[in-house]
Each structure stands twice: as structure tokens, then as C-alpha cells.
């Protein structure tokens, strides 16, 4: 049995925990706790360790999904997770442009530690004020569309949508392209 370790990272509230809960075959370990700091203004709970889920992808391949905690004070955890990962998806909420800078920070953190394939998953595209994918790409620093990772639109609450994002990530991984 081959195991692929995929990291689901992104800004606070982008949908990382939901993404993993929607697709996992096992009960997801719940590490969400009552938010105490700036996050509390936005969400009642936040992920303090990491989310873990599992998905049988093919008869001989299982996917292990690790969701990173969103707040930077947990970035030692990002470090542990990304160094072990085969690929990752960066989730960005399209309707929260004020978070794009933080998304760039996550990107550069990950890039410094792991040269592995990645894709961008844009969530909340159904919400008011959502930016178009090409504009989010620009805001994340991808000025040339030929040299940017694949961008998928994903709703973390919809199983089919999450499955498609995972397929895109695994395909990208199989092609062995690190962007
Ligand atoms: N409308 C909408 N809500 C979403 C989408 N993706 C995630 N959410 C919601 O966003 C909220 C935050 O998700 P959560 O998984 O806790 O984010 P995390 O901080 O990244 O773990 C939850 O209420 C989700 O149901 C999306 O594409 N559209
Ligand atoms: Mg979470």
C-alpha cells in the first residue's frame, strides 16, 4: 500500500478543517479549540494542532491529509508537516482579500522548506466580494500565468468539489512538477 501525504494549508477560515472532514473516511481528529485571540473575532473555534484525515484513493494508494493550523504562532507545526509531505494545497478564501498577504507568507514559508508540487484551492467563490481566480493569482505574486501552479475552485463543504481538488493535486504530484 502506497501512502501519499498531502498537506492542506491556507489562511484562517479558508476551509482547511472542513475540506478534510468532507472527504475523510475516518472520523477526523478534532483539534479545534475555542479561539482566544484575533481569530475569536471571526470564528468560535480554531485548529490548534492539525487536522488528520484518510482517504483510500486507489486499491493500492491511500491518501493521508494533514490540515495545518492557521495561526502563525503554530508555524513549528507547519514545518513538521510540510517536510514530510509529498504535495500540498493552499486554500485561499476568495472573498477575503485582506488575507492574501498572509497567504503569500504561508507560500514563502512552505517554499523555503519543501520543493514539492502544490496547487491553489480557491474557496468561498460563492460569497459576496469574491475575487476572480486570475486576480487572486496576481495578488499571490504569480505575475505570469504560464508560471503559476494550477488553481482550482473548491467548496470545502461539497464532497464532489473536494474530490476534484484532490484529484488535481494527485495528478500534479504524478507529473512531478514543483512550482
Ligand atoms: N460559502 C462557503 N463556505 C465555505 C467554503 N469553504 C469553507 N466554507 C466555510 O468556511 C468556514 C471556515 O472553515 P474551516 O474549515 O473552519 O476553516 P479553517 O480555519 O481553514 O480550518 C466554515 O463555516 C466552512 O463551512 C466555500 O467554498 N463557500
Ligand atoms: Mg481549522
What can you see in these coordinates?
There is one protein chain. The protein has helices spanning 16-23, 75-84, 100-113, 133-139, 159-175, and strands spanning 2-10, 32-34, 45-47, 51-58, 61-67, 87-93, 118-123, 151-153. The chain is α/β, with parallel strands linked by helices. It has 5 helices and 8 strands, in the order βαββββαβαβαβα. It has a 6-stranded mixed sheet, with helices on both faces. It has a two-stranded antiparallel ribbon with strand order 2-3. The protein has a single domain, classed as 3-Layer(aba) Sandwich (Rossmann fold), CATH 3.40.50. The mean pLDDT is 88. The longest helix is centred in the last third of the chain and has 17 residues, at 159-175. 31% of the residues lie in helices and 26% in strands. It binds guanosine-5'-diphosphate (GDP) and magnesium ion (MG). Residues 10, 12-18, 47, 70, 123-124, 126-127, 155-157 line the site of guanosine-5'-diphosphate (GDP).
Summary?
This protein has 179 residues and is of the alpha/beta class. It is built from five helices and eight strands. It binds guanosine-5'-diphosphate (GDP) and magnesium ion.
Topology diagram in text:
Layout lengths: L1 E9 L5 H8 L8 E3 L10 E3 L3 E8 L2 E7 L7 H10 L2 E7 L6 H14 L4 E6 L9 H7 L11 E3 L5 H17 L4
Parallel strand pairs: 1-5, 1-6, 6-7, 7-8
Antiparallel strand pairs: 2-3, 4-5
The protein binds guanosine-5'-diphosphate and magnesium ion.
The site of guanosine-5'-diphosphate has 17 residues, from helix 1.
Q: Which percent band covers the strand fraction?
A: 25-35%
Radius of gyration: 15 Å
- Principal-axis shape equals globular
- The CATH superfamily name is P-loop containing nucleotide triphosphate hydrolases
* Distinct ligands: guanosine-5'-diphosphate, magnesium ion
CATH architecture: 3-Layer(aba) Sandwich
The CATH topology turns out to be: Rossmann fold
Largest sheet: 6 strands, mixed
Terminal Cα span: 27 Å
- Approximately how much helix is present in the residues? 25-40%
Tally of extended strands?
8
Question: Looking across the biggest beta sheet, what order are the strands in?
Answer: 4-5-1-6-7-8
Structural class: alpha/beta
Count of helical regions: 5
Q: Which oligomeric form is depicted?
A: single chain
Domain module tally: 1
Which CATH C-level class is it?
Alpha Beta
